[in-house]
Amino acid sequence: MATDSTDPSIPDKDPERDASKPLSEIPWGPAHPCFPHPNPHVPLSSPLHSTTRIIRIKRDWMIAGDLAPTFSNIYPEILEPWVSDADFRELVQNVNDRLIKAFHPSGWRAWFDAIMGLATGWVWEDLGFSAVKKGLRDTEEWIERWNGREGKMAAEGEADSAKVVPLRRTGYLSLDIQIPDPQVRFMESSASKPESKQESRPASPQKES
Q1: Long-range contacts of 140-148 (CB under 8 A, 24+ apart)
Q2: 52 DSSP β-pair partners
């Protein structure tokens, strides 16, 4: 029996443990890189809540440890209709590089910002003059440009596009990519392999709870 990918009974038991496994060995469920999550970034009343899903790119702690938020460059193949492997890696590489530069703790700018913050009663930070806040703004602006480029390419091809959710909405804990609902179903008899609605026999639409 096939159930919708938003089934809350599918547990996300240990994502950190699964992240270290080869992709083929990760069981199908919320911990799998290709799993389409419900979109929590739009209101429940929005049409996007039922027509879009989120592909969640997890943090990669091996790149910079806890010095900066960085994300895994493992390509979720479910993105293939909207984002190519090369575009995905360009996205992750640019975001990671910009965040590492923004959060660099030992450069001269970090010391300068600390001194200015102390001297101004942290008004320097509040006004957004610090390198960290400037770096985060630059990262978000780059993501907006990436979204605009992908949207333009999709429009030229008369197709829907993927969109990166602003990192501030995820608290830099994940890199969320919004895509049209791929209609992936969870098969109880084959938990390690998703089934696409387009590849299976036509079925009547199911309402999401």
Answers
A1: 140/166, 140/167, 140/168, 142/94, 142/95, 142/98, 143/95, 143/167, 146/91, 146/94
A2: 180
Q: Tell how many helices (H) and how many strands (E) occur in the chain.
A: 8, 7
Name the most confidently modeled range: 7-21, 116-130, 162-176: 162-176
> Which class for 177: exposed (0-12), middle (13-18), buried (19 or more C-beta within 10 A)?
buried
User: pLDDT at position 197, please?
Assistant: 42
Cα–Cα distances in angstroms (integers) from residue 132 to residues 29, 92, 140, 160, 185, in the given order = 35, 19, 12, 34, 41
122: left (phi over 0), alpha (psi -120 to 50) or beta: left
Phi/psi at 56 (5° precision): -100, 115
Identify the helix (H) or strand (E) that includes residue 93: helix 85-102
pLDDT value at 161 more than 90:
no
Q: Please, which pLDDT band fits residue 10 given cuts at 50, 70 and 90?
A: very low
Find the farthest-apart pair of alpha carbons in the chain and give their distance in angstroms, rounded.
Answer: 68
CA atoms within 13 A on the CB side of 59: 15
- Percentage of the chain beyond pLDDT 70 is 72
Q: What is the pLDDT of residue 23?
A: 62
The candidate with the shortest Cα–Cα distance to 39, out of 163, 146, 155, is 163
